[in-house]
TrEMBL record:
It holds the Pfam family GntR. It comes from Thermogemmatispora tikiterensis. Keywords: DNA-binding, Transcription, Transcription regulation. PANTHER family: TRANSCRIPTIONAL REGULATOR, GNTR FAMILY, UXU OPERON TRANSCRIPTIONAL REGULATOR. This is HTH gntR-type domain-containing protein.
């Protein structure tokens, strides 16, 4: 298809949905062949003009498409459709989820980190042996589910783990806020646990959190939660890991949610290959 015909297929967007729609429209044009493998996309200025949005929104769209492996950005040259668009790594449903929800997920995780870090500190202050025992049992069940490729179960147990800490804070406002946030994040958890090595990192982080609560150390518990959420945010924001996750997800199942097939090929080690927690 000629450059003129491809550009003619681009339609102006409504401002209320411009941020996600810019990336989604370009994704559809690439996957439908309007822009073929190896083609150079129009310049930021031209795309902004054609889409009727700011160049900032165009840059965000380009960043998202790069993250899911559809384009390659060559600094000083422009943005090019991946030389050979790998259909197995760009599941339409997964890509659409990522485009529509990535920024919302980042914002939700940032809020949750601020609130749950405080809940962990309170839980550590009020720590009881039964809480520590329960958290360790959940952690072992998560590890076992991961070894058997049961990512749906891993996701559910992760929610149970964090909910137990929140309830142990004994702060009714924090409990209400965080349990509501946890419910909102149920689908997003499945996507996050489909990321390469995310399960190992979470198991390690959870062990650090349990240790801090067991030692009744509020500052350590707060720091452990902070490190955990920083780790998750880095995974969500990382283009390389997101591209790999799209590939793993599509190989497991074509659908709007990551499938219950583990991306972890071997049994999960206790610390997930990371350094032990600091005492």
């Amino acid at each position: 298809m000629s450059k003129t015909e491809a550009e003619a297929a681009i339609r102006p967007l409504h401002l209320s949905t411009a941020r996600s729609s810019a990336a989604e429209q370009l994704r559809q044009l690439i996957e439908s062949g309007h822009f073929a493998p190896g083609d150079r996309l129009p310049s930021e200025r031209k795309l902004a003009e054609l889409l009727g949005v700011s160049r900032t929104m165009v840059r965000e769209a380009i960043s998202t498409l790069e993250a899911i492996g559809l384009i390659e950005v060559r600094h000083g040259s422009g943005s090019y459709v991946t030389a050979e668009v790998p259909q197995h790594s760009v599941s339409a449903m997964w890509s659409a989820w990522y485009i529509a929800h990535r920024q919302d997920l980042i914002h939700l995780l940032q809020v949750r980190e601020a609130l749950e870090s405080k809940a962990a500190a309170l839980a550590a202050q009020r720590s009881r042996p039964m809480l520590v025992m329960r958290l360790r049992k959940i952690l072992e069940r998560m590890r076992s589910a991961g070894e058997h490729g049961q990512i749906d179960e891993v996701s559910a147990l992760d929610s149970e783990f964090h909910s137990a800490i929140v309830k142990a804070s004994e702060n009714p406002i924090l409990i209400q806020l965080l349990l509501s946030l946890n419910a909102v994040l149920d689908n997003d958890r499945l996507v996050v646990f489909s990321l390469p090595d995310r399960l190992q990192r979470s198991l390690h982080d959870h062990e650090c959190i349990i240790r801090a609560i067991e030692e009744r150390d509020p500052l350590a518990a707060q720091a452990a939660l902070h490190e955990h959420f920083e780790s998750v945010l880095k995974d969500v924001e990382s283009p390389r890991r997101q591209t790999q996750a799209g590939s793993a997800h599509h190989q497991d199942r074509e659908g709007p949610r990551p499938q219950s097939k583990s991306t972890v090929p071997e049994p999960v080690p206790t610390t997930g290959g990371r350094e032990p927690c600091q005492s």
